[in-house]
Amino acid sequence: MYATRTRQARPEPFAVHPGIAERLGLPYMDGALAISAVALAAFSVFTLSQSTLHDVPGSPNYFVDRQVIYAGLGIVGMYLLTRVDYSRFRELRVGIYTFLFVSISLVFAFGFAARGSRRAFDLPLFSFQPSELGKLLLVLALAGFVIDGARKGSDWQRTVRYLCLGLAPAALVFLQPDLGTSLVFGAITLAVMYVGGVPWTHFAVIGAAIVALTAIVLVVAPGVGTPILKAYQTERLTSFLDPSEDPSDAGYQQNQAKTAIGSGEITGRGDRATQTRLDFVPERHTDFIFAVIGERYGFMGAALVLSLYALLIWRALRIVTLSKNSYGTLVAGGIAAMLLFQVFVNVGMNLGIMPITGIPLPLMSYGGSSVLATFLAIGVLQSIHMQARLSQKGRFAW
Amino acid sequence: MYLRSDERGPAMSNRLALRIAVLGGFAVVLFAILFFCLWQLQVLDGDEYLAEAKNNRTREYRVSAPRGEILDRDGELLVGNRTSLALQVNPRKLPAGKAERRAELSQLAELTHGTLRSVRRRMREELKLAPAAPVTLRRDVGNYLVYYLQENQDRFPGVEVQRVFVRDYPNGTLAAHVLGNVGEISEDELKEPQYRLLQPGDEIGQDGVEYTYDRYLRGRPGLTRIQVDALGQPTPNGQLVSRPPVPGESLKLSIDSEVQVAGESALAARGLPGAFVTMDVHTGEILGLGSFPTYEPALFTRPLTQKQVDETYLNPAAPLADRAISGLYPTGSTFKLITALAALEEGVISPTDVVVDSGSITVGGQPFQNAGGAALGPVSMVSALQYSSDVYFYLLGLKMWDTGGLQRWAYRLGIGRPTGIDLPGGEESLLPTQHWRNQLYAEGGTDRPWSAGDNIQLATGQGDLQTNPLQMAVAYATLGNGGTVVTPHVGKEITDAAGRVLKEFAPPPRRQVHFDPEYRSVILEGLHDAAQVSGGTSFEVFGGFPIPVAGKTGTAQRVGHADQSWYIVLAPYPDPQIVTAVTIEEGGFGAESAAPVALDILEAYFNKQAAGSAGPNGGSPG
Predict the structure, then answer these.
(1) ipTM greater than 0.90, yes or no?
(2) For B461, left (φ over 0), alpha (ψ -120 to 50), or beta?
(3) I want to staple A298 with a disulfide (CB 3.0 to 4.6 A). Which of A117, A267, B170, B347 is the partner?
């Protein structure tokens, strides 16, 4: 092969006989990215193992076992994606987009309903939530469309086209209803457009439209009697502004989460934790797992987790700058924004500064679809990293 | 890690570089916000949240303490406790839906003989003071209800049955008016200082000695602080603090069950409203005190049905009223003892002065007649008391009509003032005086001022006089014991569970009254002759009684009623140990109904004394 011949032409002392690490491509991967992702997943398993012992009667390790399997599958998937040239996804953008659309739509037909919302398929091993994987698929497809349309039509036409492409699946997810994921879809769309070079003025207009839309959805529409959001959604979105003592209120849950985190103080309460151990904080293995960390492991544990996320996102942003092509830049930018948005909204929700939107904490929250999809997204980042490193060395593939 | 030059990819446009930089800056800002908030929550305000979290997860439950037992003077149980089942509602486990909640509560209301409204009010009140604690809807529920609820548990989420202590009265109605009853503390009572440690739902004595000695009997509830989860459910091994309840101390009364039984059954046999009191003349210890009609104290351990409410509260015979201490009666001739002492001490008459009883006297144009109009001829103090000559005492009343001497002595002996007995209940009474009547007249409350007729009436226990058997018993006891106005009391001692005496009650005498012992002998002789010398007013009843006694009949005219029968007796004569006063509304002549009741009581008392002294220990216990 061409690449092999090139290497023979320019022999390198340390790579004449490629070792096992070289064969696995490890030198070309972003170690810090991989380590931070795996560390977060490990921390998740550790936290679940300590805090969910009594959640499922009779099987103390119910959540732990499953989360280990999901994380394992995710790591394998991440590695496999690392070895795939992400540029192939650009060619598959229409197929990916179609798959995204169909899988989300199928949920309406075949998905099972949980708490009034249809968002997942019930598979034999676990329930699969297409919208979680959909976040990554949207990044991959939308980035392709942006590259594709870079030279077609006027600026405004392109902006509107990207918006429509991104917001269509977001709307579909919103109808499940899954407000949190649809917001993530929206954030991804804006991020890809941003990195794609959509003019600042357009963002100003879009920003104004978002403010106006928020006002209409939360204030005007309920006022004239045609609410767009369900009552519980509105309450969740607004309750962080007005916490309440009523246990049935969303604001109460947030208060309890804040109390849980605050009570952890610097070193945490360990097994003496009460807020998250005695059900005062709801959804402690999923949306409010950060509160569990805050209470059990204190500022030291919570700050460690936040630092790992900061590392993760820094590495993602760095990969944005390293990418060998524009598609990689856009994909990395989309994934970085997706992670940043989810971490900020989820942790902010736990800390009581963001509304309750049901967005999981990537890699930490229990849930197969989310863990798997996040590892795959990091696999794509690794692929971009690896391709960039290989191209600098003048090698394209084995 | 800095970028090595050879790691750089294709050169980015400056525009893209700017955008990435802005995105990176944005990320830095967002993380800074998260770190700052985390720092503030955990490091700066952490202790506040920790306190809140600790407060969050604990619930305190009070464990009710059994009330102390009430015993008679021989240690016989008068009031005990039994465990019973109480119906409680855990508000946190009630259905969330408004309609379902309403349906369940109204069903519960029906099962507990209440209304939806009363159940709701009760829950509101208790939850205000003890949030999230179970609310007791009804105590002492029957087994049928418990079984019903257990069989239909799914229909009554949040309903629990708990074991509580309920007062138990092994002797039924015995001494009901002395014992009183317990009931849940009211909102107003909670504000009173002596109940400041109590909580809604706690039981306190509402009447009788249960009320007076509540602080000894009450005990101290235990406290269990347990860890709960968000639903208020106790967590496994979550018991944090436990302070066991301290049972109430036992109260030993001076009541002698045998005297009490004798008095109550004799009264009940007459079937007329009435009362009796038997008291130790030296110490003021009440040996028996009863009122008829009576009631079942056990009635108040369960919510009353409408029928029971009608029978107790709305009954014209007023079974709850303790006629022995709150009756308002004229006393008839039993008052003559007081008139006699007053006249002798005031120098109005001497024991040997003889008055001719012609059957009637006329004062101010108004005739005053002997009962039955009989003329007794010449009488002295002793025979006047023996035959109960009204004319003799009319004259004494007339002689003292404007000196106030009669009132002075009556008041010294305790008529018209509280006796200080350790039982609740208004000790109202009225000793008519010149001043009182004139003032009433001036205020337009009556049609005429004080006149000689009023005092003549008072001299024979008639007219405006309103007193009760207890006051009369104290007055007789004062004469009987030589001048000590005792404080009547039923509480004798407080003992712990092992029977050790913790506190003895011996209230000091109210005051001393000084009178000539010779006068005392004369009056007692007259009373003795009345009871046990042929021709005496109660000779028919007491003539055959082996113990010498000194007793006086009374037949009081009461407006709107048939004559009221009275009998007050000091025994044994001439150095009395006890006094017994009996009155029976509409009972006719004193010798007719009240005296036989007194006889039954004295027989019971002296039979026991005789049995006690004949016993192996040579004396009665206590």
Answers:
(1) no
(2) left
(3) A267
